[in-house]
Amino acid sequence: MPFPLTDPAWIETRDFLKQHARELDAILAPNEFMEFFPGNYHYNITYLLPPSHFDYVVIHKGMVAEIEPPFALEVLRTFQPLFANAVFVVFAKQPPENAPKAAGVHLQPLLNQLAVVEAQQRGKVKPIRYGVTITTYNRPESLGRSLPQIRQLGAPVVIVDDASSPENAAANQRIADEHGVPLIRIPENRGLPNAMNVGIGYWLADPAIDWISYFQDDVDVHPDLFKILEKIQDPVERPILAGRDALEHPTFAKGSIAGYEVLFKRSMPGQHLHAHRDYWAGVMPIPTPYLGAPKPTGGKPGQGADEDWWITAWSPHAIPKRGKYLICVPGLVRSFQITEQGSTWGNISERQEDGQPIIDAALKELAVPAVAKADSVERVERDSRSDPCGNRPPDPPLAEPVLAGLKVLVDGYNLQLTTGTGIRTYAVNLIRALTVLGADVDVLLSRNSNKKDPILDEVLFFDEQDVGGRKLVENLMLVKDLLKSSVPSLYRAWRREAVGEVVLKQGKFTEDFIQLARSYNLPKCYSVANAAFNLFGRSTQVTIPEKIDLWHATFPLPVSIPGAKKVTTIHDLIPLRLPYTTLDNKKDFYNKVKRSLKDSTLTIAVSEHTKKDVLSYFDADPDKIVVTYQPVNIKPLDATPEEIGDFLKRYRLGYQNYLLFVGAIEPKKNVGRLLEAYAALETDLPLVIVGKKAWSFEDDLGRLDYLFDPGTKQDVRLLEYVPGDALRYLYQGAYCFVFPSLYEGFGLPPIEAMTMGCPVVTSSASCLPEVCGPAALYVNPYDVADIQAKLEQILGDRPLRDQLAETGKQVAQNFSLKNYLNRLSAAYLRAIG
């Protein structure tokens, strides 16, 4: 249905998108929008791509029939209408800040149409249709064993032969013909990702197929596989499942769904993967560097991403990226193997209890998966050696000293601050973890000093570092240091020696910092490095009198250590993603991150979402960016509710009788909208805000004056500073924790709350669904009404509150110190490689 480009409704809609959408945002709209928005897709793609692929969906009220009904209904459920006129309605996945709401008079006609569509869909009771893809390569014996079992499942099958030898290809074709199954033979072996792209694409081209099961050619299958999976699968909540467990892929929890024992995973092997067509459409094709070229570093021809990891974990549309889990139903599939020779895969051969390989045993029916009484989720205890992301075992030591003998230097930029910051906490935990792993750790500080007089050196080191009123002298010294820093051999740090009790430090400085005072120091070296980078675009080399193996910058710094490899941690790209929420010099920040990615042997990201952001903004090698997350050191109280309640009386609070927010009061934390949502609640539970007043706090706290007056029953308590132990009581005693942040790199406060058994209501933005998983109630952080609704939901549903609290304890185990040590040691071993 083309329409004239002079139509006022079209022009109005186009101008709205030009105002709010970015140039390359993915937009579903009629083709007429393509000229202005290169990321435009037409409606006929809705059978293939899920709504989550798009940033905006523009629905022409006269073209609703051209959109797949499930797609349109999912948009209605998960997107927010921003704009409507007589012809168009614009929906957004993540509404921009201050975006308007669609006018009801123009929105309602579309809602009426979609209500009819929804009723029609409910009236269509059609059987679920499955399609099966099998890939094979030089193993006709395996195919001959697996194909008859898979055919008995009752679904149509296609076989993809990845260029087997002529003899084996002929045997495969005979087996396929015998069972009436089509076989696609690829003329040249291009690796399993390419074969899977062909086989899954075969079924995606058939809109009648709802679910697609992929099998390798070396599997035995349960005869009721589809009947069992049909009771568990869900296109939205559980869109990808697997029938075979593998110890090398960590299990985060176990439970039961529809009476069957299940495992909650974030990655799975590729022997069997079963997914809804929308999920397959979102993760396919598996990227390959070409069609046919060998892998640059050797290995299987045509191999790009590891196919199983891409499908289950790495793709931007993989289920863990949505904060959810893959579901494994162990016992539905098992693998066998005749020989590794000539095969694409090197699967471990499964054996029977007597040690006999399965391939040599008589074929027999697999056991029905263990049945549980009701749907549940429970903690899983595992041997940490087989699970680098699992729960901490109670008995073994935290970690082996795998970094023994490694000399590591960590920047002290944030460590030397006397007030806490998120990066300071990260640096403290990093040093503790490296020490546990056996590394010899030092810190490079940049405080005032005097090399000639030890006593004066001690005084200047612990003095306030802002000299104020001495700008001329300070600038002259900066010029002197800039000149010196251009010659690395002259720009040297030295190790400080403590001088007794010359300075009384207790009460002002933490024990951590007092210990760090014996590390290396070079006055104002970070100021000099930043100035040199801004003025000349060069990284500053700081010479250390001892050999350093690895220099770890806890955030992007233009500093290098001669002879040492560099590792940089990137926490977030908030200054680039939400530039209006920070005071950073955005050009400076961008260039420092870009330079750090270039200079670092390895970059550590604190979440997959941060890694994704880095790859979106910079031309970086994804293999050189490793996600370690962060550890959570806070520990639950061994206290009764009565004891917690007694402690809370000092804050005039009752046990589970208040809402809690923890974080700096600054634009990105979204405190203003939280206050508006709280003001609209019918509750007398106080809202406790724990956090320092940061940049632009007046804008948020200024709302207190007009939202609340002495007659309102709501009560907002501001606690700027709370000691660590008191914070544990506040977490554990709260009814729930509310954290509607606009953007986070990791999101430590929600994990702390979950660790303490406090249920979480948090934002659906950035990394928060990734780290909180199924243990949180999610809100649109830009929608005050949604924040209010979710708070009303948890306040009115005590069983939901208790369920989230229990699930949160399990999810928080993913970020234990043990798991962090495993991830950190793997990253360091890779860096020093």
UniProtKB/TrEMBL annotation:
Residues 375-397 are annotated as: Disordered. GO terms for biological process: lipopolysaccharide biosynthetic process. Residues 375-386 have a biased composition (Basic and acidic residues). Keywords: Transferase. The keyword Cell membrane does not apply. Residues 132-235 form the Glycosyltransferase 2-like domain. GO terms for molecular function: glycosyltransferase activity. SUPFAM superfamilies: Nucleotide-diphospho-sugar transferases, UDP-Glycosyltransferase/glycogen phosphorylase. This is Glycosyltransferase. The lineage of its organism: Bacteria, Bacillati, Cyanobacteriota, Cyanophyceae, Oculatellales.
